[in-house]
From TrEMBL:
Keywords: Membrane, Transmembrane, Transmembrane helix. Residues 34-111 are annotated as: Disordered. It comes from Nocardiopsis mwathae. This is Glycosyl hydrolase family 98 putative carbohydrate-binding module domain-containing protein. The chain crosses the membrane at residues 12-32. Residues 135-224 form the Glycosyl hydrolase family 98 putative carbohydrate-binding module domain. InterPro entries: Galactose-bd-like_sf, Glyco_hyd_98_carb-bd, NPCBM_sf. It holds the Pfam family NPCBM. Residues 47-77 have a biased composition (Pro residues). SUPFAM superfamilies: Galactose-binding domain-like.
Amino acid sequence: MKKDVKVPTPLLTGVGGALIGALVVFLAMALASPRTSDPDDAVSPEDAPPPPAPASATPEPSPTAPPGTPSPEPTPSPTSSADADSGGPSRTGDRQSMAGWDPVDEKGWMEWGGATMNTEDFTDALLSGNLCRSERWAEFNLQRQWSTLEVTVGLDDESGSEDGASFEIIGDGERLDQATMSLGESRKLTADVEGLLRLRLAVKGTDGNKCGTSTTAVWGDPVLYD
């Protein structure tokens, strides 16, 4: 004969509560623990998005000259040289020294050198020494290329105290300018040589000159202009 066993109600209630409590604790711990990342979910370096490009620097504006500032002037280039037939050195710009030019014709002793005239030094001068009363001259080929001649005339400061000289500038046979000078004097002569072929620089001693003295006539720094 089967015998029924009865479990006391308080015992069932206690066991059920214990099971429910254990389940609650397990669920709470499961939710609180961190989730382990899946290796398949990791992003490879090749698939990673590129880093943002750095912002480009804004170029600074070029400095601007203040209004009214003039532009720099170009450097002028030298003018072409004169023809070698003139016997002179190369021309520079519109000004040409005659120093060193070879005469195409001449009479008497004349040469290039330095002199002191009325206390002023002239390094490029045409000299004629030992003046008596005879005329001496040197003639140059201008090739009709020049318009103006400037030259300072007088006697070298080592000349005789009573001597003098008469200077003439002659172009194609026509007198262009002249001056008579004594010791301690000097004068700048200017002559129009526009279109001239030949230029003659002539000098002779005055009547009071003593032949054989050290008197020297000076054509100081002769210069031609276009």
